Amino acid sequence: MENPSTIQKIAFLGDYIPRKCGIATFTSDVLSAIAAEHPQSECFAVPVNDIPGGYTYPKEVRFEIEEQDLSSYLRAADFLNISNADVISVQHEFGIFGGPSGTHLLALLRELRMPIVTTLHTVLQSPNSEQQRVMQELIARSARLVVMSHRGRRMLEEIYQAPPGKIDLVPHGIADLPFADSNLYKEQFGVEGRRVLLTFGLLSPNKGIEHAINALPEIVAEFPNTVYIVLGATHPNLVRERGETYRLSLERLAKKNNVQKHVIFYNRFVELEELKEFIGAADLYLTPYLNEAQITSGTLAFAFGTGKAVVSTPYWHAAELLADGRGVLVPFADAKAIAREVIGLFRDEPRRLAMRKNAYALGREMIWSNVARLYMRSFELARLDRSVISRKSFGTKTLDEQPRVLPALKLEHLTRMTDSTGLFQHGVFSVPNFSEGYCTDDNARAFILAVLLDKMEQEPEGVRTLATTYAAFLHHAFDRTAKRFHNHLSFDRRWLDPQGSEDSHGRALWALGLGVGRSPYRSFQVLSGQIFAEALPSVLGFTSPRAWAFTLLGIHEYLQRLSGNRAAEQIRETLLARLMDLFDRVSGNDWPWFEDVLSYDNAKLAHALILTGRAIGNKAAYERGLESLRWLAQIQTAESGDFRPIGSNGFYPRGGTRAKFDQQPIEAQAMVSACLEAYRTTSEVWWYEQALRAFDWFLGWNDLGLELYSPSTGGCRDALHVDRVNQNQGAESTLAFLLSLTELQLMQDALTVFNKSVS
């Protein structure tokens, strides 16, 4: 006898009856089964509504989620945490949750404080990049993963690299029906004395019913008493989009084939008790589905497990369940094969009876009482494994184990945004916006990226071409008379300002310093060095702390190749002293910062102190840089633990209200870069974690659970607003992502080399 479970409260998240869909029925059935087998455990449901106003739910439903309302998911997370559930059972299929590929679910899961057990009703063989990302996070956040077939387990391991030890194989549950003669049930449906074929479930074109109807003339020719029952309402989504077009086409096909007297359509969603009667009346069950990539079929499991002979197409679940003579498989969309096998089974009663007995015997493992015990075991393991899973998935992300898998670097959008003059400043969606022209700020950032990519030997010819364009732009932007850079250039190549901002000047110096210090090409070194030397002294007249910080970063890079340049060293000391003085005058115990407001590109101020203080041995500057960056990291951490940059819609004045939106990609990039520098100088893994946390903001680990980076274009969207993502993919945002990705990849490469050298 099993020991009673210590789990007191279980939450079930997914669609729920009376919603008419397979997931709703499954969620209801598994909840009821577990509640019956483990009465000491309180079970309740949190369903997802796909229609305004939701449904008239039974009493076990405690909270409802509106499918496309992100805030509803966050409120549900609060409710679940307050409920003190011991475990949550999530029913996952991409189509039932809101957001791109169901990303709203991730926003909810990130907030939960109990172990998560996820049942995967679909495992895609060829996911797109967004679906892959959702699955990877779902796998990471789940303490246990439940699949219903061996193939599902293999796919999780091979395609998604899910840890084998956290995957549980639990069959689809079925009702416990007796092994009975079908003739006992036929009279109530008016089909007594007839051979009954049955297909049931929500109707949609991928069910392949037309091929079964095309097989009927041949079947009826030999067995004229055959009737084909098609049981089930048309899928609600299909009804909303196309009405009853598919069902009507099936009725017309039956008339065309002159088998209308042999086909019965029951256009309704039947409850379990009535469904048992229909199943009982069937002599053969047909599943002529057209899509191979179906890992689970509840209707197939139900018919098979109750001892019905089955003729099916070889979709994944059927191929596995009906192997070894437990059923008959026919090719997809092959009416002749369906007719041949149905006739063969009707002719061979002993074979059909043996098939039924084999199916029924295996079905005893699938009855809901047994499935409930298996689920409870999975829930218990989730509680035991929770601390281990949490540590492995969300704790220290060191690089001495398997390195973090980063997205592939794609330069297509950057290339599209660049013409022979330079990088366009803004985009309309993923199209360059000519009317906004170009700016030095972005071309400087782009030159930095190109130089870093050279270090990675990434697309060398293409990258060098881009670097040449950006270097030429900086050369053209510099006014040798005023010793200042222009910033804004129109599409018709007219400078729109007598001189650019101090920040744009500082960014240009940062880029040029990097060109001197890191570019492998002599031409870039010389060109960058000449402009840098002429433009550097102007910074002494600047008042912008960010311009000072950008310049300090540039000086550091410049001196990596041209150390001993006394003028550059003196300006470095002056700018560092100014930043230190600013920090000392403004900061306090509760506000260790340089200004009375947190605004934009914040982390660059701390970054400059860390880098410069370490380089020249100024311990006070170095420690203040780390102190201020640590505080900024804490300030920019949401309740969920995700990165939440200071919003540009009001910033964060000291003693005032912090703006949560509009969140800008440049803030995430600044944190990635600064935290990687802190990691380099301290070797504290916490800093590397902060860099990854800021980078994950681009990938959807943010307040809305929405992806800023677009894998399809290679661009990055411009901002995270309170209710949406800004869909434009401008230069600053795209460069913020590409720079962050490149710096992380360079860090991983360096550590890989180091680990090999000491191993």
Tell me what you see in this structure.
Among the domains are: 9-173 and 369-394, 3-Layer(aba) Sandwich (Rossmann fold), CATH 3.40.50.2000; 183-363, Rossmann fold (3-Layer(aba) Sandwich), CATH 3.40.50.2000. 50% of the residues lie in helices and 11% in strands. It is built from 27 helices and 26 strands. Helix 17 (440-455) packs parallel to helix 19 (502-518), helix 21 (545-561) runs antiparallel to helix 22 and helix 25 packs parallel to helix 27 (731-758).
In short:
The chain has 759 residues and is α/β, with parallel strands linked by helices. It is built from 27 helices and 26 strands.
List segments where confidence is low: pLDDT < 50 over at least 5 consecutive residues. 387-402
End-to-end separation: 51 Å
Q: Which percent bin holds the helix content? A: 40-55%
Major sheet: order of its strands? 2-1-5-6-7-8
Q: For the CA atoms, what is the radius of gyration?
A: 32 Å
What value does the average pLDDT take? Answer: 91
In DSSP terms, counting alpha (H) and pi (I) runs of 4 or more, how many helices? 27
Got a strand count? 26
Q: Quote the beta fraction.
A: 5-15%
Class based on secondary structure composition and strand pairing: alpha/beta
